[in-house]
């Protein structure tokens, strides 16, 4: 009977491992891949929000950092990984630019 108990324990551990993978690991990997795509697509003129809550416009993309211009004209250098999202820019008629609209559709 001891062999049956060990087999049920192994099956139980496999089930918990599967649950752990699908509830924790897989969603985190998808979120990380989405963030990496966002960082790769950054270009000059994009409006962004950083992890620290700073809103600005990308003025230059460097190897692993960005130069962003904040509202008062100050240019600061930040790590690309600190970018959390891009912000839709409204034109003078209150409509969202096409580039930003495509990003919202893919979300």
SSE diagram, text form:
Elements: H1 2-41, E1 47-50, E2 55-61, E3 65-69, E4 75-79, E5 83-86, H2 98-106
Antiparallel strand pairs: 1-2, 1-5, 2-3, 3-4
Structure description:
The chain is rod-shaped, with a radius of gyration of 22 Å. It starts with a helix and ends with a helix. A hairpin with a 3-residue loop joins strand 2 (55-61) and strand 3 (65-69). 46% of the residues lie in helices and 23% in strands. The chain has 107 residues and is an alpha+beta fold. It folds into two domains: 1-41; 43-107, SH3 type barrels, CATH 2.30.30.140.
Short note summarizing the structure:
The protein contains 2 helices and 5 strands. The chain is an alpha+beta fold.
Oligomerization category of the chains in this entry: single chain
If strands are numbered along the chain, what order do they take across the biggest sheet? Answer: 4-3-2-1-5
- Could you describe the largest sheet, including whether it forms a barrel? 5 strands, antiparallel
Q: Which runs of at least 5 residues are low in confidence (pLDDT < 50)?
A: 98-104
Distinct helical segment count: 2
Any guess at the CATH architecture of the largest domain? Roll
Rg from alpha-carbon coordinates:
22 Å
Query: What's the CATH class label of the largest domain?
Result: Mainly Beta
The total strand number stands at 5
Helix content bin? 40-55%
Could you list some keywords that capture this structure?
107 residues; alpha+beta; SH3 type barrels; 2 domains; five-stranded antiparallel beta sheet; 5 strands
């Amino acid at each position: 009977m001891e062999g049956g108990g060990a087999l049920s324990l192994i099956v139980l551990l496999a089930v918990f491992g599967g649950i752990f993978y699908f509830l924790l690991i897989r969603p985190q990997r998808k979120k990380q891949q989405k963030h990496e795509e966002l960082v790769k697509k950054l270009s000059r003129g994009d409006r962004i929000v950083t992890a620290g809550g700073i809103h600005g416009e990308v003025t230059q993309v460097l190897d692993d950092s960005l130069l962003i211009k904040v509202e008062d004209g100050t240019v600061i250098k930040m790590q690309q990984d600190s970018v959390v999202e891009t912000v839709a820019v409204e034109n003078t008629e209150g409509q969202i630019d096409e580039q930003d609209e495509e990003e919202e559709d893919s979300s």
